[in-house]
Design goal:
172 residues, 5 helices
């Protein structure tokens, strides 16, 4: 298993191949459907995003409320295909990586290749495991969206698999 600290450098991404098992530690952002719609409303108006997209990693998930002794509750991946219309633009704006579940279309794969990005697959049904890897969880945008808001997560030893590498290779 490859252990990587975030943010990812272009060299880190170039050293990843489809099928590699990876353990991520550092900061990621969560964003699901509703948050992506809001992000694109801001971009359409030429307004500044409430967080930095360049070199960020977006996890297609929404953390569940936590127990008093935990940073987050369960936080499993949602189906990535629902964000296919948004991902190429965000990758073109400098997004380094996506974490999600399932296949994505050829446009996303081309954007990953064009921008030296990577798509990590998280394990569906393993939300409790991912919740335990979250060391801090803070809502940073669109609080009214509740679990669909954008959260800043500090993670440690977050297990993923390289689903699409920057060379156009796929585990699918």
């Amino acid at each position: 298993m490859k252990k990587l600290c975030l943010p990812l450098s272009k060299e880190d991404i170039k050293n990843l191949k489809a099928g590699d098992s990876v353990s991520l530690s550092g900061v990621i952002l969560t964003a699901r459907d509703c948050a992506h719609k809001r992000i694109f409303e801001l971009l359409k108006k030429d307004e500044r995003l409430p967080f930095e997209i360049k070199d960020a990693v977006i996890y297609y998930a929404g953390p569940c409320p936590s127990k008093p002794d935990a940073a987050s509750g369960s936080c499993g991946p949602t189906t990535s295909a629902r964000m296919e219309g948004f991902a190429p633009t965000l990758l073109d704006l400098g997004l380094a990586a996506i974490i999600g579940k399932g296949e994505m279309n050829a446009e996303v794969q081309a954007a990953l290749k064009r921008n030296t990005g990577v798509y990590f697959a998280a394990i569906g049904g393993a939300g409790a495991l991912y919740g335990k890897a979250i060391k801090s969880c803070e809502c940073i945008a669109f609080e009214d969206l509740l679990s669909e808001a954008v959260y800043r997560l500090e993670i440690k030893d977050f297990p993923v698999v390289v689903a699409y590498d920057c060379y156009g290779n796929s585990i699918y």
